[in-house]
Amino acid sequence: MRGKSGRLGRSGRWRRLPGARSAAGQVLLLQVVMALALIVAAVTALSYQARYDSERDARNRSRAAAESFADAPGTLAALRSADPAKALQRHTVDARRGAGVDFVAVLTPEGVRIADSDPGLVGTRAEDTGQAARGRAVTELFEGGPHDAARTVVPVTDDRGAVVGLVSAGVSVDHVGEAAARQLPLILGTGAGALVLATASAALVSRRLRRQTRGLGPAEMTRMYEHHDAVLHAVREGVLIVGGDGRLTLANDEARRLLDLPADAEGRHVTDLGLAGDTSELLASGRPVTDEVHLAGDRLLAVNTRPTDPYGGPSGTVATLRDTTELRAVTGVAAVARERLTLLYEAGVRIGTTLDVARTAQELSEVAVPRFADFVTVELPDPVLRGEEPTEARTVMRRAAVSGVRDDHPLQPVGDLIRFDVPTTPMAAALARGKAVLEADLTVAHGWREQDPAGADVALAYGIRSLVTVPLQARGVVLGMANFWRSAPSGRFDEEDLAFAEELAARAAVAVDNARRYTREHAMAVTLQRSLLPRVLPEQDALETAHRYLPAQAGVGGDWFDVIPLSGARVALVVGDVVGHGLHAAATMGRLRTAVHNFSALDLPPDELLGHLDELVSRIDEEEAEDAGSGITGATCLYAIYDPVTGGCCMASAGHFAPAVVRPDGSVGFPDLPVFPPLGLGGGPFETCEVFLPEDSRLVLYTDGLIEHRERDLDAGLRMLREALTGAPGRTPEEICRAVFDAMLPPHRRDDIALLVARTRLLPRDRVAEWDVPPDPSAVAPVRAACGRQLERWGLGEIGFTTELVLSELITNAIRYGSAPIHVRMLRDRNLICEVSDASSTSPHLRRAATTDEGGRGLFLVSQLAGRWGTRYTPGGKVMWTEQPPTGGAAAPEVPPLFDDPEW
Tag placement on the chain: N or C end, fewer CB within 10 Å? Predict the structure, then answer.
């Protein structure tokens, strides 16, 4: 009682307040005081925050206005004009109004105002502009004339980075204060509203508490608490209180009945009460549990335990016991339902992991065995297996998957055709109705036997007794059949199993349909890509080549390669990769490959060709971004030109890996190739790298899918490539391709792989003839005669006249229109190649001469007499070249008329 009197004495001061005698009144008063304190603190904090936010907003607005004006396209030009003040004054006024600032000014680097939104300040000097004049933008709270303000000064720089002027913008401090003051009524009003709401909520809580306590004070509530024992022992739920030492402190009547406790149970350790081992262990451990089932005699008890420490009492455990013996009958049903839900979850995770139709069917059969069925078979139509839409004829399907608890089952194997011709079979009935069909006892199902009586007898003799057959349907289309079988030791299927089988088949059907669609799209993309890649590499003598290409297993990409013969017996090697996968990447690859062929026909050097290709990709990217919202987002490319006369190889790269060079002695190196960003990102101008390749060297070009994937980083891939290429110097390109793929092919290709290997050859020196030609028309005849003698030594005398005529025209043009030095070179390759070079970069053009023209017919003759001809530019000028087949009739070829007038 002393404790109670003390509590009442301490609360006496609250009783003096009106309405505070009850517990509800005291709670109300305390909540109102606490709410008032919190609201005052919040209003104060919000006021300071409003001031801070206003100043920060002033800084941000002044900086944004100054930077926008400084970066405007016309600001720099106006500062460079003859009268900057006239050009900028009107714009400062417009900028001040548009940006919502108090002033905008344009200053010289020395701080003198050229233009100002306040014309009266023009010509005055601003303070503290030194940092901005040195190239740094400065934002500060400035104190000075004409106003105290949050000011930002931003430099205006020219192309060389020199500061040519300053732009200042700011918001006055008075304006900031007004913004904060305007927010103060809102803050105060919000605080007052919060106080009203808090008081109202406290009144509602107090009213609720007063209703529940009936206006009782603490003393009355204490007396009511003393009657808790009567209530505790009257409840129909067992209650136990176990102390921290494991001894039973309290047990109500229901707990004594449920656990059959002795009369002197209180005070004894729970392990001495004769309880079941798991029950006594739980009560002694003190661990919290919820509805944990324990067996007490013939009763099934649901036990809940909670520690008493969090509620202010002494350490211990409170346990409640509820008799759930009547739930024992439904426990088995709940376990089965839980197992079915678990199986459906696993089916969602395990079915459809590979986007392969046959594998998806196999995953369905594996998931259901053995937890739902002893054997599972899945049949799919052939069009579905190929990725096509299923046909209307659904009476014949191919077995795609079989799984069972035993391997010696009598069911037909994978690959067999399964017919559903007889309408009395469960499979035919399920297809006709579009729903699952149950045959609980196959021994009495005569309709099932009519399709294959002999097979049915074998299955029954094996022990198969029950069947559920379900059509696999997605989007209203039947994609196949799933059959679930149980043998004699297992129970028969029932109606609940029928519903589960339908749910499992529905999930599997969606996965099968996704795999079918992917198979179709993947096949289309692969077909498109293979049609765009070179089917046969062109014949040429400069390089012996071999190649490999493998599409990604998860979707084709945009990798490509090419070998392109050029003039002068040279050959171009190309390898590239378009970012992305699918039909879009494959189509883009085809466009880029065509563009490379077209640019190569112009005999451009690698750096210029990549520059043109970069512009093309950027233009395509912009067009597709406007139409579809997404573009190419880049492509890599490596372009190399090999010259068999000199052995030089000139190459350039746009975001692509440098090729590997296998020297004749078997050592491997990677050229120090300048790498620029991928195409379409504006990385030009590109640079070239020229290396000398001895004869019998191997040049290995590849895409990133070969050396880099999820299980292997780039450095490890390059190291493995070096190891695969090192040694065995006599290997052919085909053998190198095979060795590289055997050593480096990843187990699962997530990206395309393209590999191109070229072995270099040199044109023998006895097949090259060269002459320097003086810039004199009289020198044409001696050179022409020397060329004729060389052709005789090569055994090409029958084309000597035609060749001399072509060379005569080209040399004459070089002497007349070009500039020294003039050089003639003949190469005997698959074709006879004639080249005339000079130092002029002016290229002649083919035209048809009029009847009155004295000249202009030389190139026309060359174009008619030569098989191919053209011009390529070099750093020192140009080269006019022709190609002729090594054999030809002695008679001159028929030449079309050279004049427009048919009567000439």
Answer: N
Residue 304's CB is within 10 A of a number of other CB atoms, namely 15
Q: Are 374 and 487 in contact (CB under 8 A)?
A: yes
The two beta strands, 316-323 and 375-380, are unpaired
The mean per-residue pLDDT over the stretch 158-174 comes to: 78
Question: Where is pLDDT greater, at 180 or 774?
Answer: 774
Nearest to 31 by CA among 215, 212, 197, 214: 197
Measured in residues, the chain has a length of: 904
Band of residue 894 on the pLDDT scale cut at 50, 70, 90: very low
Q: Residue 150 and residue 887: Cα distance in Å, rounded?
A: 88
Nearest to 384 by CA among 361, 414, 418, 350: 361
**d(C-alpha 383, C-alpha 386), whole Å:** 5
Instruction: Return all residues near 828 (Cβ < 8 A) that are at least 6 apart.
Output: 767, 768, 794, 796, 886
Q: Is the peptide bond before 782 cis (omega within 30 degrees of 0)?
A: no
What is the tens place of the pLDDT at every residue in 476-516?
Answer: 888 899 999 998 887 888 888 888 888 898 888 888 888 88
Select from 400, 387, 389, 360 the least CA-distant residue to 518. 387
Q: CA-CA distance, 500 to 350, in Å (whole number)?
A: 17
pLDDT digits (tens, 9 = 90+) for 649-671: 999 999 899 999 999 988 999 99
SS3 898: coil
Query: What is the average pLDDT across 591-614?
Result: 90
Q: What is the mean pLDDT of the chain?
A: 80
**Dist. CA 168–CA 527, nearest whole Å:** 63
Contact between residue 640 and residue 573 where contact means Cβ atoms under 8 Å apart:
yes
Phi, psi of 502 (to 5 degrees): -65, -40
pTM (two decimals): 0.53
Q: Where does 228-354 show beta strands of DSSP type E?
A: 238-243, 248-251, 289-296, 299-307, 316-323
Residue ranges with strand state E in 391-542: 396-404, 417-419, 437-439, 464-474, 477-487
Q: For residue 71, how many other CB atoms are within 10 A of its CB?
A: 12
Give the closest residue to 755 by CA, choosing from 547, 606, 550, 588.
547
587 or 47: which carries more pLDDT confidence? 587
Mean pLDDT of 396-400: 90
Rounded CA Rg of the chain: 46
CA atoms within 13 A on the CB side of 512: 36
Following DSSP, what letter does each residue of 687-755 receive, concatenated?
--EEEE--TT-EEEEE-HHHH-BTTB-HHHHHHHHHHHHSS-TT--HHHHHHHHHHHH--SS-SS-EEE
Residue 888 has pLDDT above 90, yes or no: no
Q: What angle do CA 120, 125, 126 make, to 5 degrees?
A: 100
- CB burial class (10 A; 0-12, 13-18, 19+) of residue 489? exposed
Rounded CA-CA distance 419/481 in Å is 11
CA distance 643 to 570: 5
What are the CA-CA distances from residue 658 to residues 85, 243, 640 (Å)?
Answer: 56, 77, 10
Element (H, E) at 865: helix 858-865
Give yes or no for residue 43 having a pLDDT over 90.
Answer: no
Residues with Cβ within 8 Å of residue 777, at least 6 apart in sequence: 812, 815, 816
Running DSSP on this structure, what letter comes out for residue 35? H
Torsion of CA 14, 16, 20, 22, to 10 degrees: 90
Q: Which amino acid belongs to residue 442?
A: L
Please name the residue that has the structure tokens 């669609």.
517
Rounded CA separation 710/552 (Å)? 13
Q: Which residue has the tokens 């009355």?
A: 220
Burial (CB count within 10 angstroms: exposed 0-12, middle 13-18, buried 19+), residue 750? middle
482: closest CA among 341, 373, 338?
373
